[in-house]
Amino acid sequence: MDIHADRLLILDFGSQYTQLIARRVREHGVYSEILPCDVDPARIADFSPKGVVLSGGPESTTDAAGWTIPKEVYDLNVPILGICYGMQALAQELGGRVESSQLREFGHADLVIEDDSSLLAGLFETGSLSVWMSHGDRVVELPPGFQVIGSSTHAPIAAMANDERRIYGLQFHPEVTHSEGGSEMLARFAHGICGCGREWTPENIIDDAIHEVRKQVGDGQVLLGLSGGVDSSVVAALLHKAIGDQLVCVFVDNGLLRLNEGVQVMETFAQNLGVRVIRSNAEDRFLTALKGEADPERKRKIIGRTFIEVFEEEAAKLSDVRFLAQGTIYPDVIES
User: What pTM, to 2 d.p., does this model score?
Assistant: First the structure.
């Protein structure tokens, strides 16, 4: 089973909510990736998604210098969902019209469901719901072949659809918890319209990670820097499950942990789980390096540099290590 086969591409136009779109999609068991809107077009085709979500963004489609939707998105011939700026870009590029509005919407708005569509039909019994708006521009003329499926007081075209082409637009943000039924809309798009399954689950992700590690590592030794934090601890547990004694962890005890935390790390991994952990008691070395330093940024760099030095010294004592494992978190893809 390929848990990445059913996938959605999220094209980022600079929205503060783009990461939330990805999170909501994944919560519904569908693998997704975020790419910037100015990405090399070849990457869009290579990713081969079953659907594309266009995020919101701070730009205006009425500005000639604003971001446009790459031609390759349309060439995929898969369902498209435009959110906020994404909807406006779709409307503008497909023959509709967008203009700046003097009555801007920021915050809650009442959305009235105007017509049945594959995206909204049957989801809401009342015919209206509270959604979260954040826009200054609005669609004032539909592209040919589209129908209005939702409206609000200040946005008569707050949602649009072309079921035949499987292209949809939402002026509001379904990805935020403030939008009533927003998560269900994204699920409808992913499963009902794009035809994605629900294979991207924690259980399947773990099984897939273990399989990939075993295939890559073979009978080689793996070295992991174990801090006792969530990130490296999860990696240690997964690697141990995958390759057992082939994993060697180095725990650099810098003396700056919580009371008895170093003992807890050793008890959890070395004693309870049976992981091979080498503990380097480097408290004196770290405290000596930090002595007299008050600046937080310089402290951070001293700790980081000293950690690398101690880790490399411990690693040099080992033989036959072929792989280095690192535990980190998803936001580091962006922040680091």
Answer: 0.83
